[in-house]
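Revision sheet: structure tokens.
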Amino acid sequence: MAINRPVSAGDVVPDQCRIIEVRVAELRQLFNAIDPSPFHERDIDPRAEEFIVGWSRDFPVDAPLALVVYLDRAPGLPNEASAFRDAVHEFFAQKAASTRRGLRELFHRGRISLTIGLAFLAASVAISNGLQTYVGDGRVVDVLREGALIGGWVAMWRPIEIFLYDWWPVRADARLFDRLSAMPVRIVYGGELRPDAWRSDWPAMPARP
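Predicted:
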């Protein structure tokens, strides 16, 4: 007896890939409905993005990724899978570029914060030493000296936080988006077998002759 196998299209998924699986009724459910951009430049829906990125974080950082979309309709246009793959790749490539711009801006703020913090710390140390030299000892003077030193080190808190802790999660996100922007993408069709179901999915795509 013949066995009906699912029809699929798109990239070949190597065996070593960790697969991110998504099931939708229509491809447009994966994209932002209010985005007026052309198909290949349209943003992925925030919920779909959160799902894909969240799933990918569960895999090892060096594991190759692949996206398999289970679509509840029959195949549509011949270039449907490649157009969908290009849209996914473009979105995550833009996310990677945007994240790296954010990282550069973070380092820029860190350098400015470090300059301000060092200047304030130097001024605090000078004030503390000046109080000891010109005012002398005393409980009030000691409190003022300690307060100046504490204030100077508190001013260093933000640049230390940036250069020790804040930057590496951002770089990790950029690398993850790089992997997502190059992953194989495949569509597995099933469910709705009406051959013209694709027309209500992507009406902006060119009509089949």
